[in-house]
What does this fold into?
Amino acid sequence: MIDLAELPARLAEVRERIAAAAARAGRRPQEVTLVGVTKMHPAALVEAAWRAGLRVFGENRVQEALGKSQELAHLSDPAPEWHLIGPLQSNKVRAALDLFRVIHSIDRPKIAEAIDREATAGGLRVDGFLEVNVGAEESKHGFPPEGFAEAVRPLARFAASPSPTGLRIVGLMAVPPFADDPEASRRWFVRLRKLSEEIAAGPEWAGFPGLLSMGMSHDFEVAIEEGATHVRVGTALFGARVVRG
It folds into this structure.
């Protein structure tokens, strides 16, 4: 983990890189939400980042995030916005909705149904991204890209729902196969964007915003050039994660 005094400069640098990538694509930097990935980092780092101006934080594990949020309950105006970016088990949905209002990792219909059910019962609105395993990697979660439009057709009602509560599907998310060269990720980002465009063309998906959660520390600039609306950045902001035994 970095010295917390470095955070303002590191955050400014990442934002400058986001702005430059957006400019290359003819986009505004305001179109891109920076999600600071704080999994396995302490609450003190989250607070330092919040005080430096970061507002959106991504966590992989429900219990870890709940613990941090309790430690940081004094932060307000605005409070940190927590996004779940890791896989969600059915038995953790209720606990997850105690904190998260955005979930990037909906990887099967059963989870979408469970989120909608719990959110509706609690009077909550939850925005969700459908996770796509663009590289068909066995180690990763997500819908397969082949036959994706047909597989998610039953979930289209969550994109068009006028209800103020429940799940609203707002976009797609992917974690491409890792490569040292950021350019190697471009084809996977293009693939995700095209999948989004494919389902958005269906009348049943009317109202689908088509947001794209893609790009991490090593390739977020390429992702922005290909249409990312949310980039999940950890190492570039916070350094290596704290490994706990």
Observations:
- The mean pLDDT is 95.
